[in-house]
């Protein structure tokens, strides 16, 4: 899909401190698919006793960001320029959420990614669409 050489999983930097705080684990990391999982703890709950939407968006963003990185040209970084999430079902404390990201478009300057999030029973809890921009860091 990418028109440039992609990175290898060995090139992946360690997960962010925020992803570590939520204990988001990457279980698959290829240019074609990234899968991450997160166990829903009581600390992640909202006032209704289910997973807070911000925690679900963090899982989605982490998964999409990992996909963007693995699909970025060597020596190039990326940043999210747009993200939209639809929330469909609640996730109870104790359940595990799985986020599966597939690239829809990997171009010269942008990536469009789709993340489907499911709970333990396989039902979809959310869908995210993200656009990332390739960029070079300037000192």
Automatic annotation (TrEMBL):
Pfam families, sorted: 4HBT (PF03061)
UniProt keyword annotations, A-Z: Hydrolase, Plasmid
Record-level Gene Ontology MF annotations: 1,4-dihydroxy-2-naphthoyl-CoA thioesterase activity
The HotDog ACOT-type domain, residue ranges: 30-139
InterPro entries: HOTDOG_ACOT, HotDog_dom_sf, PAAI_dom, Thioestr_dom
SUPFAM superfamilies, per the entry: Thioesterase/thiol ester dehydrase-isomerase
UniProt entry tagged with the keyword Cytoplasm: no
Any single GO CC term annotated in Swiss-Prot or TrEMBL for this entry: cytosol
Signal peptide interval: none
Hydrolase keyword on record: yes
Family: Belongs to the thioesterase PaaI family.
UniProt cross-references to NCBIfam families, sorted A to Z: unchar_dom_1
PANTHER family recorded: 1,4-DIHYDROXY-2-NAPHTHOYL-COA THIOESTERASE 1 (PTHR43240)
Name of the protein in its database record: PaaI family thioesterase
Organism expressing this protein natively: Pseudorhodobacter turbinis
Taxonomic lineage of the native organism: Bacteria, Pseudomonadati, Pseudomonadota, Alphaproteobacteria, Rhodobacterales
């Amino acid at each position: 899909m990418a028109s440039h050489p992609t990175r290898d999983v060995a090139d992946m930097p360690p997960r962010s401190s925020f992803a570590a705080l939520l204990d988001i684990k990457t279980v698959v990391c290829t240019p074609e698919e990234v899968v991450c999982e997160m166990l829903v703890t009581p600390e992640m709950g909202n006032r209704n006793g289910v997973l807070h939407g911000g925690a679900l968006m963090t899982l989605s963003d982490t998964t999409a960001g990992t996909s963007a990185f693995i699909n970025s040209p060597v020596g190039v970084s990326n940043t999210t320029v747009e993200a939209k999430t639809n929330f469909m079902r609640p996730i109870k404390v104790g359940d595990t959420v799985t986020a599966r990201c597939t690239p829809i478009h990997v171009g010269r300057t942008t990536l469009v990614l789709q993340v489907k999030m499911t709970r333990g029973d396989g039902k979809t809890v959310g869908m995210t669409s993200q656009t990332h921009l390739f960029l070079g860091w300037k000192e």
